[in-house]
Amino acid sequence: MFSSKQLSVEQREHLLRIAEAAKPRRRSPSNLPIVPAARDSALPLSFAQQRLWFLAQMPGVSEAYHIPLGLSLRGRLDRSALRRALDRIVARHEVLRTTFEVVDGAPVQRIAAADIGFALEDIDLRHHEDPQAQVQHHAEEEAARPFDLQAGPLVRGRLLCLGEHEHVLLATMHHVISDGWSLGLLTSELSSLYVAFSQGAADPLAPLGVQYADFAAWQRQRADAGELAIQSAFWKRTLAGAPPLLELPMDRPRPSEQDHAGASVVLTLDRSLVAELKALCAAQGATLFMALLAGWALLLGRLSGARDLVIGTPVANRNRTELEPLIGLFVNTLALRVELDDASTVEDLLRQVKSRSLEAQQHQDLPFEQVVDIANPPRSLAHTPLFQVMFAWQNLQVGTLQLPELTLGPVGGRGEIAKFDLTLTLGEADGGVAGALEYATALFDRATVQRYAGYLVRILKAMSSGARRMLGELEWLDDQERERVLQGWNETRRPYERDRCVHELIEARAAMQGQATALVQGEHSLSY
Predict the structure, then answer these.
(1) Where in the numbering of this chain does the Condensation domain appear (predicted)?
(2) How confident is the model at residue 116, as a pLDDT?
(3) Chain centroid to CA 192: how far?
(4) Are the CB atoms for 467 and 347 separated by under 8 Å?
(5) How far is CA 337 from the centre of its chain?
């Protein structure tokens, strides 16, 4: 026998690792594979589904969570193969034939039989006077038509026939059964199945080991076993004292309730700027996502004057191999808190964003719904809780739908939806970065958001010019805008009636706008 004193440090560490590996592991849900849940009783919703189900009960909210798709199909369409492919996808994924009902006061999942098929309506427009106008009408109507989460179906479509070799396929899913990753899976499976069925071949897809309902049951088991306690503590500590609302300069006062109407402006970063940003990231061991998030946070701080802010960002949340081939709502949202200091440097900010991004990703398993409950911010119908701005980095390569003998093109449907005040969506494209800045039209004018997009590009250029530059030194206004801010906005002289006394002018204003704010001192204000 050897005493510990006779062993080297390396030998002692090796023995400790052997002893640790020999310890019996607690058979928790996280340590076990996801397995099929029993189907002889009511199945629970996942936490993300439960939140969307709750939101869908509120008037005017559910449509914001519709996912519409539209494709023009030019060429020889094998309608039978298309129908069989869509039916097979619905049979393959239980979540596409799932509905929700309330049992004992709580929502549960109900799964219909596999042979229910895809709800596809055939519409013949060949003899219509203006078929293109009808296509737009159907696209808008299909995208906006309400879903009945209890009766279903929650995926549906229309096949419009404009001619022997011209069709339009419209499909809409509710977000409660799908997400962005799922659209890529749907595209890939539709391509494979259509090709196979049009050639008289069998289904080429490998069987699924588990279904979405199995994931939901497993997720609930993890929560019931207390496995998410450490993650809960992290988010409680991280978001303690975070500001509940980011007050950006807006073109109109915030309405008492969100209407989710939106629009977007295109934003691009050229190759040279992206190369400079990547060089900055390489020196700091950071990613392009982190640099763009840092620039976005800095812009939001400049616009609002805030030094402490929270930005939301989506994550695919498919960190288990069993989940990768499943259609369903897996996406989670992380609340990233950023603190700004004009005296800190670009590398300081990038280091902070890197650290907090990595920490958040390590604690991404806790559903956003529970993060909100833990942080317990003030709730309001006027804005989303925890954060009102998002940054979505599109690093997922979504498959392109390819159908033999057909030329495909997009067909627009409803107007854009804005779930947040501002959402910046970017992804790499041809060596540069491209995307859009989506905005709530109830709050912002298009010209305002176009200026914001320009500000962001200038901030990123300033950041890339030197990692040790102070944040307070970074320029984000061009000469014309600086002149307008310093001179134009401070030119407050206005003509007034010089034959009246001050108190008479105030009385006249009070008669016209009695509740308007006249004086502000600190947190106190006085109306006319």
Answers:
(1) 43-484
(2) 97
(3) 28
(4) yes
(5) 17
Q: Is the pTM of the predicted complex or chain greater than 0.85? A: no
Nearest to 294 by CA among 281, 304, 276: 281
Q: State residue 477's pLDDT score.
A: 81
Nearest to 42, CA basis, from 219, 213, 211, 223: 213
As to burial, measured by CB atoms within 10 angstroms (0-12 exposed, 13-18 middle, 19+ buried), residue 161 is middle
247-267 pLDDT, tens digit each = 999 999 999 999 999 999 999
Question: Tokens 């407050």 sit at which residue?
Answer: 492
Query: Does the structural domain 237-487 have CATH classification 3.30.559.30?
Result: yes
E strand spans, 450-503? none
Considering the four listed CATH numbers 3.80.30.20, 3.30.559.10, 1.10.10.10, 3.40.250.10, the one that applies to the domain covering 47-214 is: 3.30.559.10
Contact indicator for 344, 470 with CB cutoff of 8 Å: yes
pLDDT in tens, 276-313: 999 999 999 999 999 999 999 999 999 999 999 999 99
Among candidate residues 206, 301, 295, 200, the one with its CA nearest the CA of residue 248: 301
Return the DSSP state at 44.
P
Q: Where are the domains of the chain?
A: 47-214, 237-487, 496-527
pLDDT the model gives residue 30: 60
pLDDT tens readout for residues 439-470: 999 999 999 999 999 999 999 999 999 999 99
